[in-house]
Amino acid sequence: MLLAILAADPAGAARSLPEPDRPGLEEAAPSRALVVRIQRSLAREGLYQGPSDGHLSAAVIDAIRAFQRRAGLAVDGRATRSLADHLDTTAGALNLMNRLEEARRTNRAKARAALAGGDATRDLLGPPQTPLATRAQGFAPCRAAPTVACLLDDALAESQRVPKDEMRDWVLGEVMAVQARLGQDGAARDSLRRVADPRVVLTALRTLAAVQAESGRDAAALATARSIPVTSMRAEALGRIARAQADGGR
Length: 250
Description:
- This protein is mainly α.
- It has 13 helices and no strands.
- The longest helix has about 35 residues, at about 80-115.
- It starts with a helix and ends with a helix.
């Protein structure tokens, strides 16, 4: 029979034969090992609580669909190699994020401990000494007749409206640098007390020392640098002071 078909239409017969290398066949009938891999990945995602037995049960298919919906994939419930790879990538990214978050917490704790251990920096962890003034008239008066003082006050007030700590800390660091350039070291330290992340405080102290040196106030710059409780950052601050002194012919 097969010989007769081949003789009559060899091209059509070839098209009717199965193609073992076609990807659709693997997706339609996943291997036991592939299903086990997917089951374990779904379990890590908290989407599957059954056994990792390689059986493509209704519970596994439901879990696949739940993951596909969450990941923004086409929801077809199919156990494919691409799905397994996507699950592995997601798990890897989550693991990396968890490690980064743990490192962030550890480094913040170290920075806080370093600041708390320094006689000249312990006060930077406390509440600001100068409360922000309330503005019943808003910012219009300063914008109508701007001065450096009122613009800085407005910038500080606006910084408190920034919802994310890291962005607010960045704004406060910029305000602190301007205050230091104007010789307002007390106000600059008061701005630092408003910074949430102690790591940013350490970095800002290094910047403060450099700005003081660039303004020709070497004694204040050296005092700030010596107050930095982390050796490497203190060395960097001293290097920036030396560069500013050299640039200024000092």
